Amino acid sequence: MSVPETKPTVLVLTALALEYAAVRAHIEEREERSHPDNGTIVEVGRLRGTSWRVAAAELGEGARNTAALTSSLIGWLRPQAVLFVGIAGSLKDDIGIGDVVVGTKVYGIHGGKQTPQGLLVRPEAWFGSNALVQAARSAVRDMPDVRVHFKPIATGDVVLADAESEIARHVREHYNDAAAFEMEGSGAAHAAHLEGREALVVRGISDRANAEKAVADAGGSQQRAAAQAAAVAVAALHKYRPRGRSSDDSEEGPQGRYGGDHIDFRGGIFHGPVIGKQTGNR
Question: Strand 180-182 relative to strand 81-90: parallel, antiparallel, unpaired?
Fold first, then answer.
């Protein structure tokens, strides 16, 4: 399987075209590439204002579809981290349209066993990468115009547009700390976990997951929420340092010296540090 010549460092995923457009606005020097086996198209470029290389992809709706394609893209591109960025419905009265929820963990809500006594829930949850969550916490301190909540997110294979529906009651009863409801986050988080990658789900609130969803959508709430989520995700990447790197590490140029006679090829096309021994002037 061939790999792009320049390996992107971060994989940024979306489900919908409007979400992708919000992410794409932050990426420069874009080059389109196609997965050699399944044809999934990504745009590889540079995150504006940083030395990060990113690959962005629009995967479509649904957790299972997202899990399969995310795993495939990770195997092809070998990113250091995976972000899923998009919109969601609010599950809490104090989280309004236009707010952003950064997923401290993501629930898959459909696991369980149906018995004569009722449904016995078998929850699944994937925690957001601590490094990425901390980067987001740091970043939003300088974003006073965006209300950001660090809360769990629930993923289900339904569009939730009725706050009194059975599925809404199920989420309130068994996933009561979830602040937002969406359709793909658990798939991306599960794939990243299996592939050993750090992951984070960032969602802008476009509706209240109730009967007024269509009205909110018609008023442009989805575009605004997607833009807010993308802004928070990008701000987090400005602060994010992969494992083994601190804020003291230089990000300028592909090479940097440290520790006496060693060279670290950071920022180059290599995946991870490549170490050499310094001898004389070479």
Answer: antiparallel
